[in-house]
């Protein structure tokens, strides 16, 4: 039996004040992970004295352009991400990933901030947001700090958020010209599926058809999503007309295994991650040729 | 543990409630308001039997604490029938025999209703997406989709 007291507020300052004053506070947003963990009495759940509902903080529900970024309030639901023209235009891979989350009911409640703070190894928004070099804004009563999302993650279901902090905003830098992106996900079925494996790809293909600034971030492949620098370097500098996709596939498989070791799922994931990356690369290569 | 006072609108009627810190929307509906049409299946948001419409959106009432939704508007299966007249979706479910044991039916209807409220003429794929979160273990989905299509094509 989990015993806790419940607070809800419509004011950000009040929420930050609760976090500052009270101990063992668990923040509740959309509830699509937390209420499941509570129902299942998940061992991942820390002891909770207070549940702080932030789902009514209207001030954290925005998507807006800002200088060289798009800023997303942490309480934006997956359904809102999918509908937003600004995101469809600039970051289609993020929208594609949001579309694959849970079901309509889950997407209507689950939030981008919750997906990041819960930090599941299979969190669908983590690979695209890491590949986009997103930053998270962590706000406490007295200060505010910005961390690259990749640094924010500290392990499976672990982040560097402090007990008195709230994730308030996600900042995604705009991609320049000649960038191409893709997101692929494999689940056990089409709807309500947890990613068995996914991949987010962001690349620049310059006027000479050379890969630049390659970012490859698989989901459900490593203990928590991270960019794979070896395969990124192997792709960088190659011409889209000469790249050996089989070799790139071998490199990403090896890099994944170098991180995870050989696990029960390796016989499946080793060839599959190679195929996912190949599909993504083929897709961006084709797109860049259509644009040329 | 303090109780939370709040007012919500359920099927068009304002109700003022005292709820516990762990009380989920489905608990409030079934146990405080005696609206037992909404069913509890998996309790973890996977089966959709508990689907209701919250401020226009289909949601799982097992994944919401009632304390979160003061001031909101909830539509349940009991709110579909107006003045003794079945909603066109309810009528279509009967006509197309889209019901066998009936346990998933309230959730199916609420997901379908949420879709039609936003988009009165959805295509087949849009209907399937709206039902992604609703499981049926007896009739199969075909009659359900056909029933919704028949209303969408009107």
UniProtKB/TrEMBL annotation, chain A:
GO terms for molecular function: FAD binding; oxidoreductase activity. Keywords: FAD, Flavoprotein, Oxidoreductase. It comes from the Bacteria. Residues 1-177 form the FAD-binding PCMH-type domain. InterPro entries: CO_DH_flav_C, CO_DH_flav_C_dom_sf, Diverse_Substr_Oxidored, FAD-bd_PCMH, FAD-bd_PCMH-like_sf, FAD-bd_PCMH_sub1, FAD-bd_PCMH_sub2, Mopterin_DH_FAD-bd. This is Molybdopterin dehydrogenase. It comes from Candidatus Infernicultor aquiphilus. The lineage of its organism: Bacteria, Pseudomonadati, Atribacterota, Candidatus Phoenicimicrobiia, Candidatus Pheonicimicrobiales.
TrEMBL record, chain B:
InterPro entries: 2Fe-2S-bd, 2Fe-2S-bd_dom_sf, 2Fe-2S_ferredoxin-like_sf, 2Fe-2S_ferredoxin-type, 2Fe2S_fd_BS, Beta-grasp_dom_sf, Diverse_Oxidoreductases. SUPFAM superfamilies: 2Fe-2S ferredoxin-like, CO dehydrogenase ISP C-domain like. GO terms for molecular function: 2 iron, 2 sulfur cluster binding; metal ion binding; oxidoreductase activity. PROSITE patterns: 2FE2S_FER_1, 2FE2S_FER_2. It comes from the Bacteria. Residues 4-80 form the 2Fe-2S ferredoxin-type domain. CDD domains: fer2. Coiled coil: none annotated. Keywords: 2Fe-2S, Iron, Iron-sulfur, Metal-binding, Oxidoreductase. PANTHER family: OXIDOREDUCTASE WITH IRON-SULFUR SUBUNIT, XANTHINE DEHYDROGENASE IRON-SULFUR-BINDING SUBUNIT XDHC-RELATED. This is (2Fe-2S)-binding protein. It comes from Candidatus Infernicultor aquiphilus.
């Amino acid at each position: 039996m989990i015993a806790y007291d419940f607070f809800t507020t419509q004011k950000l300052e009040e929420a930050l004040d609760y976090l500052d004053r009270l101990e063992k506070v668990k923040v509740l947003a959309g509830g699509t992970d937390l209420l499941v963990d509570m129902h299942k009495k998940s061992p991942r759940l820390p002891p909770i004295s207070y549940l702080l509902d932030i789902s009514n903080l209207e001030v954290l529900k925005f998507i807006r352009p800002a200088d060289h970024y798009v800023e997303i309030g942490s309480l934006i639901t997956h359904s809102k991400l999918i509908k937003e023209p600004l995101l469809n235009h600039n970051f289609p891979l993020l929208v594609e990933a949001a579309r694959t989350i849970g079901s309509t009911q889950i997407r209507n409640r689950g939030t981008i901030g919750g997906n990041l703070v819960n930090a599941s190894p299979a969190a669908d928004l983590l690979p695209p947001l890491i590949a986009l070099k997103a930053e998270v804004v962590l706000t406490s009563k007295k200060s505010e700090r910005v961390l690259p999302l990749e640094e924010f993650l500290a392990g499976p279901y672990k982040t560097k958020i402090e007990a008195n902090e709230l994730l308030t905003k996600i900042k995604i830098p705009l991609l320049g010209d000649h960038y191409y992106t893709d997101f692929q996900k494999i689940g056990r079925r089409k709807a309500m599926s947890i990613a068995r494996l996914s991949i987010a790809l962001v690349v620049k293909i310059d006027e000479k058809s050379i890969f630049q600034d390659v970012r490859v971030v698989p989901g459900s492949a490593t203990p928590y999503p991270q960019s794979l620098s070896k395969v990124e370097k192997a792709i960088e500098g190659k011409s889209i007309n000469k790249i050996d996709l089989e070799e790139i596939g071998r490199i990403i498989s090896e890099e994944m295994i170098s991180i995870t070791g050989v696990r029960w799922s390796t016989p499946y994931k080793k060839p599959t991650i190679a195929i996912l990356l190949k599909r993504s690369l083929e897709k961006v290569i084709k797109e860049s040729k259509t644009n040329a | 543990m303090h109780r939370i006072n709040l007012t919500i609108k359920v099927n068009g009627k304002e109700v003022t409630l005292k709820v516990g810190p762990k009380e989920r929307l489905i608990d409030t509906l079934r146990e405080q308001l005696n609206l037992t049409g909404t069913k509890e299946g998996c309790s973890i948001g996977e089966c959709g039997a508990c689907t209701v419409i919250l401020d226009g959106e289909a949601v799982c009432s097992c994944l919401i604490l009632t304390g979160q939704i003061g001031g909101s508007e909830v539509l349940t299966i009991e709110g579909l029938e107006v003045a003794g007249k079945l909603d066109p979706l309810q009528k279509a479910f009967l006509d197309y025999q889209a019901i066998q044991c009936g346990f998933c039916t309230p959730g199916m209807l609420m997901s379908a209703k949420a879709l039609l409220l936003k988009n009165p003429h959805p295509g087949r794929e849009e209907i399937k997406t709206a039902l992604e979160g609703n499981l049926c273990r007896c009739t199969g989905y075909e009659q359900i989709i056909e029933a919704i299509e028949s209303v969408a094509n009107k």
